[in-house]
Structures are given as structure tokens and as C-alpha cells.
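Subject: Predicted fold for VOC family protein, 127 residues

User T.R. writes:
Posting the sequence so we have a shared reference for the thread.
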Amino acid sequence: MKLNKIHHVAIICSDYEKSKDFYVNILNLKVINECYREDRESYKLDLQIGDSQIELFSFKNPPKRSSYPEACGLRHLCFEVDNINEIVKELNFRGIEVENIRIDDLTGRKFTFFNDPDDLPIELYER
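User M.O. replies:
I've generated the C-alpha cells; pasting them so everyone works from the same file.
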């Protein structure tokens, strides 16, 4: 078996407009497609990140994340960046709280975490 790459990551949000603003206007992800699925009363927003995608879904009353971040399932989403200090500075300017930058003991690379509007942990990892 050979897996080529991650095609997409799906995220369910509680406030579609707030999450759309966060991923599009703060993280600057490109909108590929947006549709409203009337039968499900749900939006689906496809966003491009490099050669992968994030699918942002809205559903009525989705259950909250059961614990942070050790709930079974997706632990966090990670974006590779060229300069972590610049990205952290921009996020702070936009009012996004970011943890202190740490050094990965195994690779020596810088990394940090912040949260999306639904408290999904997002990691930044410097190339």
C-alpha cells in the first residue's frame, strides 16, 4: 500500500461565519468552493493550503470537544511556516493568543500552539 499525501482535513465549527473569517481572513487560506447544503442546513467551505485542503463544515449544535487536547480523534492541526516569529507577531496583532515558542527536543525546530474559534489546537512548526 502507498499513500501519497493528506488530501484534506475536515473541521466542524460551531459558528460558521466566525470560523470562516478566522481561516480566510486571519490565516489567509484561499477559498476553493463554498456551498450551502439546504437538506442538512449546513455550510461546506473548501480551503486551499499548499497542495492540500481544509473542509470547514457547520452543523446545528455539534457536540463540544471532550477534552483538551487529549480527546480521542484529531489532536491538532499543524501548519509549516518559514518564520514562526513573524507569524506569531501577526497573530498577536490580530488579537490571537499564542503560546510561548518552544524548541522540539527531537528536531531542534521552533513550534507553538494557538486555538481556532472552537478551541481546536493549531500548531505552527518552523521549517
